[in-house]
Write a structure and sequence with these properties.
It is a single chain. Strands 3-2-1-4-5-6-11 form a seven-stranded parallel β-sheet, with helices on both faces. A two-stranded parallel sheet has the order 7-10. It is α/β, with parallel strands linked by helices. The longest helix is centred in the N-terminal third of the chain and has 22 residues. 47% of the residues are buried. 43% of the residues lie in helices and 15% in strands. It starts with a strand and ends with a helix. The protein binds NADPH dihydro-nicotinamide-adenine-dinucleotide phosphate (NDP) and guanosine-5'-diphosphate-rhamnose. The site of NADPH dihydro-nicotinamide-adenine-dinucleotide phosphate has 25 residues, from helix 1 and strand 5.
Length: 323
């Protein structure tokens, strides 16, 4: 039985990846940071019905010893490094923490693997945010990076360190440059979930408005369940490389918002307000990925379209609020 070690297992992608790997017959070990809310922290895993099928161990990205001991004990074949301070807006408020966790944390994990299990295959969760002020449209593996937030700068460091460990130590280390991917398990602070959750509340008479920031920003949104499969596919290749994972379709925040209001049979203009306080110090205006390499080499293509994603997220939020 193959063993997979996942950091960030309590997050959106960790939950879907656990479900996917269990389906492939893996033993799944997840690193969870100590929390005073440990009773609720496994909610996403519980929602997918996988909490009882995985092994959770305590560790923290800022603590090399804890990571080394876990890698020594469980001897993973594959390591999926997903943990991060992942909310871009927060990265301006906590730039040092974001650098420590999202940037240096990846190196700490790479070190743990290099020390205790160098033959393990390693996946780094890189991000389309690294393209930032985009230098070309659409963005592919060869597009130059131009990070626009402390988060993106930290991810870029982690990205190049992953490349460096591959080239310096011959580790099988790949970076997936994933564009935005969402699901009913998306954190409530991200724009898609903020929209579906609030529209569900409007539908149920619990609030009468939705406040947003920059509605003109364009993103390439896919479904998290599709994207975790791409992570796995990267680690099944003989040679480790980096891949862009995206749908190829871009839409504004307004477009997504309208889809959700339409799905709820409500008129968007009656409810949406904007608040300049939600604008970011520097914005990533346009992301659109070119995942041709992933299609060619991994046989991977996004399956879920934006309309279905919006409808699934809204339905889940309505059900949760009713339940
Ligand atoms: P989430 O924010 O949902 O999950 C982040 C995870 O990291 C959580 O499990 C969190 O634990 C954990 N974590 C945070 N700090 C630490 C720490 N110091 N030690 C150990 N664990 C920690 O992110 P997603 O699932 O959406 O994304 C997964 C990864 O992919 C992230 O690295 C993200 O930056 C990256 N990414 C995401 C994209 C997306 O659209 N979703 C696109 C491109 C990249 P806790 O539950 O305790 O908070
Ligand atoms: P992003 O996701 O920054 O792309 O990072 P987010 O959903 O936070 O923002 C997307 C766009 O929507 C605009 N926006 C708002 N955003 C939020 N959160 N709340 C609002 O009210 C709002 N109004 C407008 C933002 O300005 C932005 O342009 C996500 C994270 O998952 C990262 O970890 C990951 O690396 C990237 O996607 C790819």
């Amino acid at each position: 039985m193959k063993v997979a070690l996942i950091t960030g297992i309590t997050g959106q992608d960790g939950a879907y990846l656990s479900e996917f790997l269990l389906g492939k017959g893996y033993r799944v070990i997840g690193i969870m940071r100590r929390s005073a809310s440990s009773d609720v922290i496994g909610e996403r895993l519980r929602w997918l019905g996988v909490l009882d099928k995985i092994t959770l161990v305590e560790g923290n990205l800022t603590d090399l010893g804890s990571l080394v001991r876990i890698v020594q004990e469980y001897r993973p074949d594959e390591v999926y490094h997903l943990a991060a301070q992942s909310f871009v807006a927060t990265s301006w408020q906590q730039p040092s923490l974001t650098g420590l966790v999202t940037g240096l944390g990846a190196v700490t994990m790479l070190e743990a693997v290099r020390i205790a299990r160098p033959q393990a295959r390693f996946y780094q969760a890189s991000s389309s945010e690294m393209f930032g002020k985009v230098q070309a449209v659409p963005q592919s593996e060869t597009t130059p990076f131009y990070p626009r937030s402390p988060y993106a700068a930290a991810k870029l460091y982690a990205h190049w360190m992953t490349v460096n460990y591959r080239e310096s130590f011959g580790m099988h280390a790949s970076s997936g440059i994933l564009f935005n991917h969402e699901s009913p398990l998306r954190g409530i602070e991200f724009v898609t979930r903020r929209i579906t959750h609030t529209v569900a509340r409007i539908k149920l008479g619990l609030t009468d408005h939705l406040t947003l920031g920059n509605m003109m920003a364009k993103r390439d949104w896919g479904h998290a369940r599709d994207y975790v499969e791409a992570m796995w596919l990267m680690l099944q290749q003989d040679i480790a490389e980096d891949y862009v994972i995206a749908t190829g379709r871009t839409a504004t925040v307004t477009d997504f918002c309208r889809l959700v209001f339409d799905a709820a049979d409500l008129v968007m203009e009656d409810y949406v307000r904007t608040d300049p306080a939600l604008l970011r110090p520097a914005e990533v205006e346009l992301l659109q990925g070119d995942a041709a390499k992933a299609a060619r080499q991994l046989g991977w293509n996004a399956r879920v379209g934006l309309e279905d994603l919006a409808a699934e997220m809204l339905a889940a939020d309505i059900n949760r609020l009713r339940g």
